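Encode chain A's predicted structure.
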Amino acid sequence: MITKIAVPIAANNPNEAKKQIKKALDAGAEMLELRSDYLEGINVEIVTNLVAEVKNSGLKKVPLIVTCRDKQQGGAVEYPLRLRIDVLDAALKAGAEYVDLEFDNFRSIDGQEKLSTTLSKVSKGRLILSAHNFETKFANINKLYRDISSVYPAAIPKLVYTANHINDCFEAFDLLHKTSGERIVFCMGEAGLISRIIAKKLGCLLTYTSIDDKTATAPGQLTIGELKKLYRFDSIDAETELYGVIADPVGHSLSPAIHNACFAEKKVNKLYLPLLVKGGQLEFDLFLNNVIVRKWLGFRGFSVTIPHKENALRFVRARYGYVEPLAAKIGAVNTIIIKGDEKLAGYNTDYAAALDSITSTLKIERAGLKGMQVAVVGAGGVARAIVAGLSDAGAKIKIYNRTIKRAENLADEFGCEYAGLDGLKDLDAKLIINCTSIGMKRTGDGRQNTEYSPQDALRRRQETEDREQRTGDRGQQAGDNIPIPEEYLKKGMAVFDTVYNPAETLLLKQAKKKRLKRIDGLSMFVNQGMAQFKLFTGKDANAKLMRKTVCNELKK
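Encoded structure for chain A:
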């Protein structure tokens, strides 16, 4: 079955509906859903004229669904059931290929008899019987599917529910896997996002997208541009292999953009997804076990980030999988590969990405890191990976952190020196690395980095360090400030900022002003992505394409 992209037309008047229809068709819609419950003062004549105009226009011909949704199941306006059935009946007579009615309402005498009679007389009209749960999973989705098929065998069952956790999605996947024919099954909400994307792989009749963010009609609905461009919907089929980034939160991640761009360039049948896995070890393990036992889903590998890197290491070990030695020493895995025999392998590409960024900028081999004086600011997850890699290469490292005990613990583990943040004033190193999120552009509020005095910067850095110590990693936001005051930067130093948004942080601007060598976080991000791509595909990624893709996404 070829899954179609359906775009809902949610306008409050016919003229606006016509504009939305043109936009949807121009964007590549393969089916339209006229949400007539959004139209003000709806009546049979308005819908009949609108359906006829769509069918008789010179626009691209695509199938049309007419829906007049019950307010209790997501409708925009509370119209009476009799009027809604009259509207659907008129739509069928006007030439709509599908009408969508709630299963519960269809079983009323008026709904069943009137629509059944009209359906028997029109040649192409089909009935979609739908059920929605905006709170949680259905009590028994399989029974509900059977009930719809039993009451009206010719109907197309549509079962849509909210996934409060990504693990809630597997009931929908299972139903699609064990049934055939025309049916529509997916999940709403951010946790259910992947069900909309892989609908084509699982043979769902259609998936719903919006024209843009303003016209979405359900939680978790992607825009048609995102589905077709970012997630390469047109290239998905039953054999598509799946990959993804496991994180919480995950909506900010640029990994789907870079990996899907490179999959497209290499012309490999692979798709990379955002996988929102909330909770701790229990929920993480349940998700991966759900994936592994369902071989037919075709998951082959994962990127793993906050807060699950340690969970990933424990999971791979518990299943007697291979763990890269340095990843074991770091105590975190950021890449999991599922091999054909269900054996797992865990890797950490962060440290290698950092070392590659350093050596390429300094124009040295890894052997050149031996004995190099390196200052690392921060003692969270990013610092741990980089310290492990540098220590393995023989660098002489000093860790600076507000919480001295945390710096001491990390330093003892890797044979380094340590100091508090006040020790930065005596900084004496060939290479300085910021492993905190200080300087990262705030997400969601549009504010840019702002300059502060050294004293203000130290105070703000200390506040951020407090949060980092609690989370064990960098988090997503960190205040608009600088990790190392400008006067502490000296001639001959090289400066590495692991923050990649913005690509040129205030710290790097200061280093540039002093004509110091600079390494940006974007290089590390791209390098770790390239290492993961190699593990996923066995092929080398296009570094220029990855960097260009990241830059384009950051501009948005």
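The chain has three domains: 4-238, 244-348, 360-519.
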